[in-house]
Amino acid sequence: MDGDFHRTVMGQRFYEHTVPDMVQRLADLTDVVHQLVDLLQQGIDADKERMVKKDKKYYTNLYIIGTNGRGLKQLTIGKRNDHSPGWSPDGNTIAFIRKRETTSQIWVLPINGGEAKPLTKLPRGTVSGVEWSPDGTKLLFLFHPLGKEKKADKKGKEKTPVYRHVKEIWFRLDGQGYFDSENTHVWVANARTGAAKQLVTGDYNDMFPCWSPDGKEIAFTSLREKDWQLRSEELDIFRVSANGGTLRKVIAPAGPKFGGLAYSPDGKTLAYIGHDKPYQDGWGVENYILNTISKTGRNHQEHGKALDRMAEMITLGDITPSFTTTSPIWDPGGSRIYYGLANEGRQHIVAADLSTGKNKVVCDADAVACSWSVDSSCTTLVYNGASLASPDELYTLDLKNGATKQITHFNRSYINTRKYNIAEEIEFKNGRQKLMGWLVKPPNFNSKKKYPFILNIHGGPRAQYGRTFYHEMYVLAQAGYVVMYTNPRGSQGYGKKFAKAIEGKWAEPAMSDLMAAVDHAISLGYVDKDKLGVTGGSYGGYMTNWIVTHTDRFKAAVTQRCVSDLSSMFGNSDIGWDIAWEFGGAPWENRDAYIKWSPMTYIEKCTTPLLIIHSEFDLRCNIEQGDQMFTALKYLKRDVEYVRFPEEPHGLSRHGRPDRREARLKFMVDWFNKYLK
Q1: Is the domain of 402 the same as that of 490?
Q2: Strand 433-440 and strand 640-645: pairing?
Q3: Angle (nearest 5°) at CA 211 between 209 and 213
Q4: In whole angstroms, what is the distance from residue 558 CA to residue 448 CA?
């Protein structure tokens, strides 16, 4: 659902949407270039805010700033969608992707003067993963052409096909829609002329390409085996000449290989994030860790396994990036590799020392590190970080002394004009089980008063809430509620045993942990036990449905992009068949489990006033799941309302159209106000 339904297709890894790295470096890291999205909620300035409201769109421009925090300059302007910037090796040019309607192209911008200009002239389609060759003469990228089934008019807008002839089990993906006949493959383009060449072919998808240090070959991941769609995480590593030719498979352990590839400085070894236990457990149970293997398929080694943590950015947010992917980064001497690690609501950056086998946390700041880069001498690290107090900004980290410095302040004017209480990190217990959560109090909080309370449950299930700015929580608190969000068992960031605890039984012990969270909040003395509300999205929607069908202690609930029936989810979700790995087989193989752990089984017990929010183009948790809840409760003559958002996929709260995101929050606040005030 919100996280662990991870998939690789069309050259990208998807949760709800892949967020590209927002930080790219110059060779000596004297400047940092990044992208900034104009969010309606952020209101960077009045003109930009008006532009977004009028067009109902987001626009992304490129900026540059010195690592000392000086010299901020906007590089591209206007109603653009510019993203994924990258410095040329000589530091004179920035390559980036500009998207227009159904087409994206690579553009280049001379840093010392001159206008940005298009480099490639590719047919309609999508460009991603742009990377300069070591000598700066070529650009590596992934390209997915617009398929034959999707005809486009002269303005680039898609026309609906007459029909879709489906032959494969995997024919759609949330946020991307229905697949066409084309695949994503590795391409290179001449950095001077833009002449582009496709290096890889076949009815498969390529992803995570990277250059060898000498620029003579490219490594990438793909799955090119029979029935690959049923085991699409079991990626293989391939090498190909930079001029094209025969593919050479790197014989590595089977299993997921995410987070990108990275050659060692001597070109002999590849690093990747993954594990060697495909489909052994449910989604996201097994920890992704740092792996290294020779490019000839020898000397495979695992790094940081004993940490028992996920080497991935899995902290959820709705303004700040969620589930970003940063490739492992080697130091110049090849003795250390930098990678990310999720740990108890935080996102660390860790250095693996290959000579000693030790893994040291080098970045443990209050700001969650979403993406990062290291300079060529490995003395300075730049990361895009979000904190409990503010949406993401850029920070530098001195790798010698550990000093951290914030170098951008894009959100300062917004934060300074808002009155709110920063979320407080809390610890509590459910029996012997230690748990962690965050509590947000309303403005002008008075501990002697009693406040209505809202419990917010995350998706995944194997993701985590953490020390990042979560706009939704502050909106609810601003409306006068004490808001609590927590990581019950089943969450990631606390070890494999913790994540595995709900396997085959999604509702337990998560239900017990969530009720313990409510009891803890009540024990604080300022929460009104008679005015409790609950909400959640995706797996959080599943748990909201479970709660209202198993207890009446909540006086109002909002279920969002929910799951109500596990058996139907198997067939109507974009990747629903993977649920078999959670519940011991397909519905016809373990029918009792699917029935037992489906909220719809207990629907007649629901007496809590329920608002259902769902997106009509949600292919992850199909809108049919919301339909079932609404129809059943109306049939039972219960207090229920239904809000459907047209055109939107699963990730409405994070990536939806601005006016629809605002409407969603308003419906939530109004519903809770109706029953809790």
Answers
A1: no
A2: unpaired
A3: 155
A4: 28
User: Are 221 and 318 contained in the same domain?
Assistant: yes
Nearest Cα to Cα of residue 60 among 655, 617, 653: 655
Q: What is the CATH number of the domain that holds 312?
A: 2.120.10.30
- Judging by DSSP bridges, how do beta strands 12-14 and 289-294 pair with one another? unpaired
Cα–Cα distance, 402 to 404 (Å, whole number)? 6
Task: Note whether 630 and 589 are same-domain residues.
Answer: yes
Closest alpha carbon to 324 in 661, 15, 10: 15
Q: Measured between alpha carbons, how far is 10 from 17 in angstroms, rounded to an integer?
A: 12
Last residue of a domain, one of 413, 430, 459: 413
- Domain assignment present for 242: yes
351 shares a domain with 473 = no
β-sheet bridge partners, residue 24 = 33
Query: Do residue 624 and residue 577 come from a single domain?
Result: yes
Band of pLDDT at residue 32, cut at 50, 70 and 90:
low
Query: Rounded to whole angstroms, how far apart are CA atoms 26 and 24?
Result: 7
* Number of domains within the chain: 2
Domain presence at residue 164: no
What secondary structure, in 3-state letters, does 450-502 show?
A: CEEEEEEECCCCCCECCCCCCHHHHHHHHCCCEEEEECCECECCCCHHHHHCC
Q: Give the range with max mean pLDDT: 13-27, 255-269, 313-327, 507-521.
A: 507-521
What is the Cα–Cα distance from 32 to 347, expressed in whole angstroms?
21
d(CA 254, CA 291): 12
Question: What domain range includes position 246?
Answer: 7-151+172-413
Q: What does the mean pLDDT of the chain come to?
A: 88
Long-range CB contact pairs, 194-199, < 8 A, 24+:
194/106, 194/118, 194/119, 194/120, 194/121, 196/120, 196/121, 196/122, 196/143, 197/244, 198/143, 198/244, 199/240, 199/241, 199/242, 199/243, 199/244
Residues 594, 459 share a domain: yes
Contact status, residue 559 vs residue 549, Cβ threshold 8 Å: no
Per-residue DSSP letters for 160-197?
Answer: --S-----SS--EETTTEE--S---EEEEEETTT--EE
Instruction: Give the pLDDT band (50/70/90) at residue 257.
Output: confident
The pTM of the full predicted model, rounded to 2 decimals, is 0.92
Say if residue 457 is in the same domain as residue 386.
no
Q: Which long-range contacts (CB under 8 A, 24 or more apart) does 579-584 make?
A: 581/279, 581/281, 581/282, 581/283, 582/282, 582/283, 582/503, 582/504, 582/506, 583/504, 584/504
Counting every residue, how long is the chain? 677
346 found inside a domain: yes
Lowest mean pLDDT among 9-23, 117-131, 355-369, 413-427: 9-23
Q: CB under 8 Å to 60, separation ≥6 — which residues?
A: 35, 36, 37, 38, 80, 81, 82, 83
C-alpha Rg value of the chain to the nearest Å = 24
Beta-ladder partners of 396: 382, 405
Judge whether 476 lies within some domain. yes
* Cα–Cα distance for residue pair 390/533, rounded to 1 Å: 26
d(CA 199, CA 82): 26
Q: What is the mean pLDDT of residues 217-239?
A: 84
Question: What's 454's domain CATH number?
Answer: 3.40.50.1820
Domain finish residue from 413, 432, 449:
413
